Amino acid sequence: MQITIDHKNIEVLKGETILETARRSGFEIPSMCYAQGAQHKSSCMVCAVKNLANGQIIPSCTTKPVEGMQIESNSEEVKQIRTMSFELLLSDHRADCEAPCSMVCPHGLDVEHMLSLYDKGAHKEACEIIKGAFPLPQISCDNCKAPCEKACRRGNIDQSVSIREIIREVVAMFETAEINPVDNRKIDKKLFQSRLGRFSESEKQRLKDTTSTPSGCLHCACAGSSDCKLRSYATQEAIKRPKYNVSSELPIMDRKQVTENMWFEQAKCIRCGLCVYNSKNGFTFKDRGFGMQVYLPEENRKNVSTHLADLCPTGALYLAKEIKENTSGN
Ligand code: SF4
Ligand code: SF4
Ligand code: SF4
Ligand code: FES
């Protein structure tokens, strides 16, 4: 069977969808709720293309080509619809891709990483990170106005984390000669940044009641950011911030342990259903419309495995160890 994509004749292989034909032929079409070889249903519309025969905008990930079909995949109209679809996904996505403290440190210290080591009691490793950012760690923050503490999320709840004091405390624990500096993870500030924004009164209360790290840090950076498709497409599409102001009802920073090393955060979930359709008696949907949530009944926990984290297109379902669980009872 032959179709055209952007006026090029393309041979369709048996069983392929338009998206699969297009990608095999070198066309770039984004996708979020589709994963190769996995069960899925169209829900996000970021893979939109136009059928020129009837002018319809269709999801390329589920539509099967028919003989002679003429597809437009790269026009301004199609691109605008994709951008709108990404903006909709992001409109109730309340999470920080990077911790604001790390974003603003003029020395490029990955403050959140250093604090996560401190909170685990890994003081030497925390010191190695500090030494990697400051040539003279003993005086590292002395002349700095601490924008990290001003930007700290915890300050929106009660008191910012005393980042400079913790840096001094950690450095004082060691003779710096015995510390081998390690390079900080360099934060790419040009990447798309999803932002948590300010907390509501009930969110503040919940976070106050559930966060008990030694430093007070909320660890607000997204632990699933390294392979988040949402972030990488949003960067590619140059999306600055969601256009729509739908306030999310989903519990923010609500980390639930799913298996020994897999975690789930509802507020980062785009309800694509990949984890639902690809786990038997595992994840399921709860409620409908804007309030719809992905949910794992307690008795289904034993039925989920870590391959779901690979399928998840965002940082909602991710693999990590030793994160403190925050629960809201949702
Ligand atoms: S809560 Fe922790 S990670 Fe978040 S901004 Fe404050 S110090 Fe950084
Ligand atoms: S899930 Fe993706 S877009 Fe959302 S906070 Fe994490 S990295 Fe950013
Ligand atoms: S957890 Fe991930 S895979 Fe599951 S519905 Fe949410 S975004 Fe999709
Ligand atoms: S990738 Fe096609 S509708 Fe989501």
Supply the key terms.
Ubiquitin-like (UB roll); disordered C terminus; binds FE2/S2 (inorganic) cluster; 5-stranded mixed sheet; 27% helix; 330 residues; alpha+beta
Low-confidence regions: 323-330
Largest sheet: 5 strands, mixed
Second CATH tier, the architecture of the domain at 222-330? 2-Layer Sandwich
Number of helices: 11
Q: Largest beta sheet: what is the strand line-up? A: 2-1-5-3-4
> Percent helix among the residues?
25-40%
Supply the helix-strand structural class. alpha+beta
Series of H and E elements: EEHEEEHHHHHHHHEEHEEHE
Question: What is the typical, i.e. mean, pLDDT?
Answer: 91
Rg: 23 Å
Amino- and carboxy-terminal Cα gap: 50 Å
Strand content: 5-15%
The CATH topology assignment of the domain at 222-330 is Alpha-Beta Plaits
Listed once per kind, the bound small molecules are: iron/sulfur cluster, FE2/S2 (inorganic) cluster
Query: Which overall shape is indicated by the principal axes computed on the Cα atoms?
Result: elongated
CATH first level of the domain at 222-330: Alpha Beta
> What is the tally of beta strands?
10
Written overview of the protein:
The protein has 330 residues and is α+β, with helices and mostly antiparallel strands. Among the domains are: 2-91, Roll (Ubiquitin-like (UB roll)), CATH 3.10.20; 222-330, Alpha-Beta Plaits. It has eleven helices and ten strands. The strands form three sheets. A five-stranded mixed sheet has the order 2-1-5-3-4, sandwiched between helices. A three-stranded antiparallel sheet has the order 6-7-10. A hairpin with a 4-residue loop joins strand 3 (48-51) and strand 4 (56-59). It is elongated and about 75 Å long. One iron/sulfur cluster is lined by residues 269-275, 294, 311-314, 316-317.
